[in-house]
Amino acid sequence: MPEFTYIARDPAGQKVSGTLSAPGRREALAALAGKSLFPLEVQAGARTVIAANVRRVPAQLLATTYGQLADLLRSGVPLLRSLEVLRKQTSHAGLKQVLEDVCRQVEDGATLGQALGRFERIFGEMAVSMVRAGGEGGFLEEALTRVAEFTEAQEDLKKRTIGAIVYPMVLAVVGTLVVAGLIVFVVPKFTDLFARLRERGELPALTDWLLLVSGLLRSWFVLVFIAAGAAGAWFARRWLMTEAGRWWWDRVRLKLPLVGGVFLQLAVARFCRVLGTLLRNGVPILRSLQIASDSTGNRILGQAVQAASENISAGETLAEPLGQSGKFPVTVVEMIAVAEQANTLESVLLDIADGLERRTWRKLDLAVRLLEPILLVVLAAVVLVVVIALLLPVLKMSMTV
Question: CB of 143 within 8 A of CB of 130?
Answer without folding.
Answer: yes
